[in-house]
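Hello forum,

I keep getting stuck at the same step: I have a sequence, I want structure tokens, and every attempt I make locally crashes halfway through. Rather than fight my setup again tonight, could one of you with a working pipeline run this one for me? It's a single chain of 97 residues.
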Amino acid sequence: MLIIRNIVLTMAGLLLIVYGGLVLYAYWPYGEGIPVEQLASAEDKFAEDYYINPVCNVPVSKKNPKHIVDYAGEKVYFCCDGCKVSFEADPAKYVKA
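Reply #2:
Ran it on my machine without issues. Output:
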């Protein structure tokens, strides 16, 4: 098994995008090898569709977040009220400078 950040390529060739032990995306190339470039593009696709909530580190769908806050010119996506409130109380604690 090959692990690159949140991407796992199994010996059988199954590509998984994993976060916090959950499989978020799976790709089966019908037994063909997956070029490294495709691994990078799968991670890019994940980044396009999901944002890692800085409070609880859970992936949040950019299409259906509970809350969005604009902070320092960036949109920050949240999964719940509690994470949004915690972030707004001390954003510097959660955002890398």
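The mean pLDDT is 75. If your local run keeps crashing, start a new thread with the error log.
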